Amino acid sequence: MFVHNPFAALPASIPPVAKQTYVVVMFLLVVGGTLFDLAHKGSASYFFKHRRAASFGARRRVSTGEATALAVETIVVSVLAAGEFCSMLRRLTHILTMYGFVLYVVSTAIMVFAYPTAAAPGPAIVAELWYLGALLVCVGGYWFWFLQRVDVAAEGQSRFRLVRADLFIVSLLASTTFALLWAGFQGADDHTWANVFFGLYLLASTVLFASVPWSKFAHMFYKPAAAFQRRIEHANGFRGNLPAPADRPVTFGSARRQPQNY
Amino acid sequence: MSRKTVFVDADILVIGGGMGGCGATYESRYWGRDLKIVCVEKANIERSGAVAQGLYAINCYMGMHWNENQPEDHVRYARNDLMGLVREDLGYDIARHVDATVHKFEEWGLPIMRDPKTGRYQREGKWQIMIHGESYKPIVAEAARKAASEVYNRIMVTHLLMDSRHPNRVAGAVGFNVRNGDFHVFRAKAVIVAAGGASHIFKPRAAGEGMGRTWYAPWSSASAYALPILAGAKMTQMENRIVLTRFKDGYGPVGAYFLHLKTYTQNAYGQDYEAFWRDSIEKMVGDYVNHHPVPTCLRNHALLEEVKAGRGPIRMVTKEAFKDPHKETVGWENFLGMTVGQAVVWASQNIDPKETNPELTTSEPYVMGSHATCSGAWASGPEDYAPAEYQWGYNRMMTVEGLFGAGDTIGGTAHKFSSGSFTEGRIAAKAAVKYVMERNKDRPEISEAEYTQLKKVIYQPLETYRIGRNEVVGETVSPSYLLPLHGLQRLEKIMDEYVGGISSHYTTNEPLLTRGLELLAMLKEDLALLGASDLHQLQRAWELQHRFLASECVTQHTLFRQETRWPGYYYRADHPHLDDKDWHCFTLSRYDSRTGRWDMEKAPVYHIID
Amino acid sequence: MPTFVYMASCDGCGYCVDICPSDIMHIDTTYRRAYNIEPNMCWECYSCVKACPQQAIDCRGYADFAPLGHSVRVLREEEKATVSWRIKFRDGREKNFVSPIRTTPWGSIKGPAEYAPPSAAAMSSQELAHEPEALKVDVLPTLARSRLKKGLV
């Protein structure tokens, strides 16, 4: 079941070029949406203005070599290992969702561009990665959505409350959930339900990629930049006006417990 | 809207997880090994209460084993500072135990500064020792967590429950979970109230964002008073509000500056002004002006008069003292460990005490029980020496059976501060354990009718808002509901204008007080129309209800005491002198929640004779 | 000086929501990050600032009396039992302070039930837990009842 390329199995009435156009349009919506968001909010202007102010507060120069090392560290620790999250469980759900999303999107592109027809659906591994990706997003995403979300876990809001901050995660989960249901029913030759869920999958995915200016989607691009800038500031002594760590030994252990909340 | 009800049974219920509450929780476990000890706190005991940001000094420590002070000395000091009116039996009781509390704090890990020459605790003044107390509250909270059977954070207790079989006996409490809205019903054999006193009942000097920078924590919402008042407990000295002379705007502490750095005050023209007012003060209060040290309120009075005479701003002379680098460090760390906001004010206005003598001001009034003031519940005293009139059985029990108090809750015990409040919690706890054991663990009965009715009342503001919201487009201005902030600001304005706030230089009289009561009565009716949009606003609504009740009590007491006992705290313009003939006594009030009547009476003062 | 949260640093962990004594740190509905919902009930106690694992919270003095351009930031390091402060004046002057915050490991307090249970004699006395040893004097002081006289003396 998890070896069938669901895009190749779509009716021949949907030509490959239509599927490929859709993927390209989604990609452009993300790029365009992010650029629009940056321009409209002036967040890039803010970022560079802040960088200048930070460099005035610097105490030492950071060499190119050092900056490169910090950039690599940012990619490895903050991006690939989700190091921006201080809570281990939150980090875990993010890693599941992030890598799942990457697998899901990349395998979609491969199947749609290289193996879009039933005649040549491609190697099973590509489809398997698509299913795996969607599944990882669902596991990480639903776990986050129902249990980890800070407004639920710390604030006591209802698990079923919907606010604008939920736009990205809900549309992403809708996309992957409907994708799995569509592929499942299609594989079982139940074309009525397959069509229903395919339609919902398209709707959810379009909302996901088109809502970039209103959702938290673009934060996945901004956060690494902010994380890198923060590393530079700690290296150059500005530290965002924070005091340097105390020159004392570490001997007392930590009292930090997961917040009891309520 | 159906809400889950959570029932919690306890032997001893400690309401409030501040210094008093943590002391009570700790000590309850020591004496009641197999008792169920429950501590319930509106916020998170890790940082709740007035010691949230830490303290730089412990202001109540005898040093008996170094022969520095004896408990009697502290009683005389507190009596003197409060113009003769303190519960000397209760004060002695705290003073004789407090050293043990402080020694335990040090053992637990509180860094206490030492005098390098003598090896003793570094004294800031006769009663004060200096500490690095940024984590004072987390350390004390750890001790409480190790003692409690359960600690409930984020539950706001709104009412006490009474025993349905015996009149005048407490049976527990009710409240709501600020996070998920659950209704909590606590059943207990003894209740120790150790909640917060009253900030935000008089209009503060800063009315915008700066409203938050009160001297006493903004989350001290007078639950310490409202809970006992509603249960019918007698309250004492509620007119004895405190006004503090502190650094301008930030209200940063001046104690270390005066005592350790040896700074002093001047008017705007560089003149020493206190001596100038001495004679006029003597005309008001007689021989009390000759006491040493000069009572806090009289020092306030001199500053106030100087400002009214147009020779402000008053400044503290720091330029000389701050040249010493050690003193400069103490001066800044004094704020960072206790009132960070003052460091922020100085940083924002480029004030360096090496170059500028910073401004002082008198604050808006507060009502609490642990500082240079002693408002609170009337409590029974220690069995070994308290006079019969001050004793009706258990130490720190109020006039309601089974209801104990500690910290800002208890009246008559001035100058106990943090260590004294924790100590009073311990005293109340041991007495509460005895009370529970001697009743053979007999449990009072709560009434389902009572808590069902209270449940409706507690959540009513959510309903009022939900329905009333349909009427208007914008949410804040509505003819049919009042937001908690609106009610708070009206309360503060009434108290300010009629009951002796800053706008009248703390002056009031009978016609003003009477008019104030009329306006309070209308506000009380409007409180039934409070609207809360969410659980946070519901908490604010109940904080306002508690503040309101305390304010009513303060006003009644202020009306009752026909003299000016503490010039510099407040003035009765129609009785401008101290009157030891008729008013060398405590004022007591008792509120009947069914009729809304306040019954006032006097109680005698007992002094320790030399 | 109410608190504020840096957009780029907050990861929505909820520690500040958990610790705030005033219940004013809550989660924004657009960004799912923390913010101060009621600056006029903020005491500037810095509990949230100290609790934030990302140092994402800072303080700006109350607008009604604190000019802009200042900074008072803190680093509380439990493992070293220290708190470090960095104060920057509006005119750029800087002051730095480091203080100890504890002398014993976190979690090391001996709970009251770990002590030997009190005797009946201790229960009926006026002594509190650990007394008289913790007082460091031999006997808990007391007064003769006759020392207390009613009225003006």
Instruction: Count structural domains of chain A.
Output: 1
Evaluate the radius of gyration of chain A: 22 Å
- Shape descriptor of chain A reads elongated
How much of the polypeptide of chain B forms β-strand, as a percent range?
15-25%
Query: How far is the first residue's CA from the last residue's CA of chain A?
Result: 44 Å
Question: Low-confidence spans of chain A: pLDDT under 50, at least 5 residues?
Answer: none
Task: Determine the structural class of chain A based on helices, strands and strand pairing.
Answer: mainly alpha
Shape of chain B: globular
User: What is the multimeric organization of the chains shown?
Assistant: heterotrimer
The counted number of beta strands of chain B is 20
Walk me through this protein's architecture.
Helices cover 66% and strands 0% of the residues of chain A. Chain A has helices at residues 16-41, 43-56, 64-80, 88-114, 124-148, 150-153, 167-187, 191-210, 219-236. In chain A, helix 2 runs parallel beside helix 9 (219-236), helix 5 (124-148) crosses helix 7 and helix 7 (167-187) packs antiparallel against helix 8 (191-210). By secondary structure, chain B is α/β, with parallel strands linked by helices. Among the domains of chain B are: 245-362, Flavocytochrome C3, Chain A, domain 1, CATH 3.90.700.10; 448-602, Fumarate reductase/succinate dehydrogenase flavoprotein-like, C-terminal domain (Methane Monooxygenase Hydroxylase, Chain G, domain 1). Chain B contains 16 helices and 20 strands. In chain B, the strands form six sheets. In chain B, strands 1, 2, 5, 6, 7, 8 and 15 form a seven-stranded mixed β-sheet that branches. A four-stranded antiparallel β-sheet of chain B has the order 14-9-18-19. In chain B, helix 5 crosses helix 15 (535-560). With 153 residues, chain C is mostly beta strands. Chain C is built from three helices and eight strands, in the order E-H-E-E-H-E-E-E-E-H-E. Chain C is elongated and about 65 Å long. The chains are: A mainly alpha (262), B alpha/beta (610), C mainly beta (153). Chains in contact: A-B, A-C, B-C. Chains B and C meet through helix 1, helix 3, helix 4, helix 9 and helix 10 of B and strand 5, strand 6, strand 7 and strand 8 of C. Strand 20 (606-608) of chain B pairs antiparallel with strand 8 (148-150) of chain C.
